[in-house]
Every structure is written in structure tokens, then in C-alpha cells.
Specification:
By secondary structure, this protein is an all-alpha fold. Helices cover 78% and strands 2% of the residues. The chain contains 15 helices and two strands.
């Protein structure tokens, strides 16, 4: 099924791609910093987790709405035309959020958070579009690297927040998130592999490959959010709340390891079949979590559950690169990395919270496993229409 290849080493011949990868990490740090930092900020000044949660939820929903639009604009006008002004606007709105939070004006805070979400730059879409235009081996390695780097973002973001909190307040962590994002966006526009798409038709979500990847990504993120909620509850129920961080970290590390292995091999078969196999593997990997509610057992099982997450993301990018014309790829990636992910998180956290409150940890993990397993059914049903 596989054969050895140059792996990530082939990217040494593409220094622009490596610089883009590094810049994208910085540009995506707000993805993992904002929710933690803003909840701490708003809980401190507004004394309400409900308001903080509403602000973060609206941030995500606003990003879900604007992501395809900004992706399409970046495809038509180029990365610089979108990443720079949008990054600057979001950084300014983060500063405004901190200032208004100190006044205690909850409606204004929620409105600013929604505006900031609408200004979420399509960083992942731009990055993957650039990588999709590399030669075959370099393209596969770059897309796999991108999936690994996303895990790095979600590991390092909360650590950056913790570092800021060690010397300053949560408001500075929110502002730092906006600053990191803006600097990363500026660096990304200087990389030659970020090309401008030509004119294209509307409705890229109607393409079978894009539709399949978007549906699977949404369902997987619903499952992942429910698992995160269940793991938090498991740690709290066992009176080991500090384990919440390590539980998330080992899960992401398992995904990163799987992404490294996936990216170091040449995989046989069509992109569609590889994606279906990886999506099924994600669901199967989650099933063992249902056997326990112990946070210590979960520490051992989560790296296994995470092994196929990054490979599934890489396979989805390979599928879109193979099925979608270059002029439409930025918008296609935006539907997946922006809209599907944000909606999935909103639904998953709401579902996970409701189930864990009423039924407990193990039923929540069982629901997550069922959703993750069922996710692969859509592309399987559409397999004859996938490349």
C-alpha cells in the first residue's frame, strides 16, 4: 500500500513553502489563544461564564459565515489584499474588546467579539492553496506538514497564554493573540507561493469532493468538541482538574505523530479512497475512549485516538487539490477549515455539554464515537463521484 519517499525532506527544494509554513503557525495562533484568553478576560471583568461563552460562540459563528467569502476574495484578489487589512482589523478589535470589557458593557463586548470573528483571516485556506500548487511529492509532504503544524498551534497557543498570564493580565494575552496573527499574516504575504487565483464560478460547495470533505470535517469536529468536553468533565469528576491540559496535549501529540508518519510515505490508491479510509480510521480510533471515564486511562488512550486526525486532514487536502480547479481552491479550503470547523465546534460543545450534564462522561464519549464513525458514510456514499 505504501512505499518510502523523500518525506518532508523534499520541501528543502521549496524554501518559499517552508517560510509560508512557519508564517502560518504565527498567523494561526489566535485560533488557539483567543478562546482561553477571552474567557479569562470576560469572566474577570463581567463575572459571567455565560457571557464569555456567548462571546466566544459568536466569534466562531461569525467566522463560519465570512470564511468562504474571504476565501473567495483571497482567491480573486490575492493573499495580500485580504490577509493584511483583515488581520489589522481583527487586531484592532481585540484591543477594543479588552478596553470595552473593563467597562462591564456585556452587549458591546459580544458585538465586538462577533465582529472580530467576522475578521478571521482565511489563513489555512491560503496556506493549503499554495501548497496544493507544488509538485506532487512536495505537495503531499507540505499538506501533511500543515496538518502537523495545526496540532502545534493548538498545543502552543494555550502555553503562550499561560506565559503572558505569568507576567501580565488576560487582556494582554488577547492583545498578544491579535498581534501574533497580524505579524503572521504580514509574513505570509511576502511568500511567492501564495498566488492569486483567476476568475471563477460561484458555488464551489456543490462539488462532490468539497461537499464530502465539509460534511465529514463538520461531523468530526462535533465529535472532537464532545470528546474535549467529556475529558474536562472526567478530570473534574476525579478531582484532578490540572489533567485537562495534559489530556489535550497528548491527544494533539498523537495526531501530530500520525501526520508525520503519513507525510513520510507515498500512499497508493485514489485520493477519494484514501480519504474514506482515513475518515473511517478516525472513527475507529475514538471507540476505545468509550470504555472508561478515568482521566488516567484517557491519558493512555487519547494518543491512539488522535493518530489518524492529522492524516485525515492531509487526505482531505489531497482530495480537494485533486478535485477542485486551482482558481476555486482557496474558497474550497475556506469552507472546510473555516465554516465546517467553526460550526462543528459550536454544535459539538453544546452537544457535549448537554450529554455530559445529563448522562455523564462515558455516554458523551459514546455519542462522539458514533458521530465520528458515521462521518465516513457520506464520502463512502459519494465514492463514485470522487477522484
Amino acid at each position: 500500500m505504501t512505499e518510502a519517499r523523500g518525506g518532508f525532506g523534499v520541501l528543502r527544494a521549496h524554501p518559499d513553502a517552508l517560510r509560508l509554513a512557519a508564517a502560518s503557525v504565527l498567523a494561526r495562533l489566535p485560533m488557539s489563544m483567543f478562546s482561553v484568553a477571552s474567557i479569562l478576560l470576560l469572566r474577570h471583568h463581567l463575572h459571567s461564564y455565560a457571557t464569555a461563552g456567548a462571546a466566544v460562540a459568536l466569534y466562531g459563528l461569525a467566522a463560519a459565515v465570512t470564511s468562504p467569502l474571504l476565501g473567495r476574495l483571497a482567491g480573486r484578489r490575492g493573499a495580500r489584499a485580504v490577509l493584511v487589512p483583515v488581520g489589522a482589523l481583527r487586531a484592532a478589535l481585540f484591543v477594543a474588546l479588552v478596553a470595552v470589557a473593563q467597562t462591564g458593557n456585556a452587549p458591546a463586548v459580544i458585538a465586538i467579539a462577533a465582529l472580530a470573528g467576522a475578521a478571521e483571516a482565511p489563513v489555512t485556506a491560503v496556506t493549503r492553496t499554495a501548497f496544493a500548487r507544488l509538485p506532487d511529492d512536495a505537495r503531499a509532504a507540505a499538506l501533511s506538514l500543515d496538518s502537523v503544524l495545526i496540532e502545534l498551534v493548538f498545543i502552543s497557543g494555550p502555553l503562550f497564554v499561560g506565559g503572558v498570564l505569568a507576567v501580565a493580565t488576560s487582556g494582554y494575552a488577547v492583545i498578544a493573540a491579535g498581534g501574533f496573527g497580524l505579524i503572521g499574516n504580514l509574513l505570509m504575504t511576502d511568500v511567492e507561493t501564495v498566488a492569486t487565483d483567476g476568475p471563477h464560478e460561484r458555488g464551489v460547495i456543490r462539488l462532490p469532493a468539497v461537499r464530502s470533505v465539509a460534511v465529514v470535517s463538520l461531523a468530526q469536529v462535533v465529535a472532537f468538541a464532545a470528546i474535549e468536553t467529556a475529558c474536562t468533565a472526567a478530570a473534574n469528576d476525579a478531582h484532578h482538574a490540572p489533567l485537562v491540559g495534559p489530556l489535550a496535549a497528548v491527544w494533539a501529540m498523537g495526531s501530530a505523530l500520525g501526520g508525520i508518519v503519513y507525510g513520510s510515505r507515498r500512499w497508493a490508491g485514489s485520493p477519494g479512497r484514501r480519504y474514506i479510509a482515513m475518515a473511517m480510521a478516525v472513527g475507529v480510533g475514538v471507540v476505545p475512549l468509550c470504555t472508561t471515564r478515568s482521566p488516567f486511562v484517557l491519558l493512555a488512550l487519547l494518543p491512539i485516538a488522535g493518530l489518524f486526525i492529522a492524516p485525515s486532514n492531509s487526505a482531505s487536502s489531497d482530495l480537494i487539490a485533486a478535485a477542485v480547479p486551482p482558481a476555486r481552491q482557496t474558497e474550497a479550503f475556506a469552507w472546510v477549515s473555516g465554516t465546517a470547523t467553526a460550526l462543528g465546534a459550536a454544535v459539538g460543545f453544546a452537544l457535549g455539554g448537554a450529554v455530559v450534564q445529563e448522562l455523564g462522561v462515558r455516554p458523551t464519549l459514546a455519542v462522539a464515537a458514533a458521530v465520528a464513525l458515521s462521518a465516513a458514510l457520506w464520502p463512502f456514499a459519494e465514492r463514485r463521484r470522487l477522484p
